[in-house]
Amino acid sequence: MAREEIIRDFYGRIIGKYEHQANGDIVVRDFYNRILGYYIASRDVTTDFYRRTIAKGNAVGMLLKG
To answer: 60: which DSSP letter?
Structure first.
């Protein structure tokens, strides 16, 4: 079961959420619940919506724009 983490900006407005999967993966969604990208724990890379590698390691924070 996925655990959700709501992400808010400085003013308390919701800008997105992280869905933590049981295998360590993270799905990043925006305010409108659209998928922005993924962190794939087995490969230790962060990918965009199209599954293109954009960073090595967990860099899901850069996918959300405040």
So the answer is: G
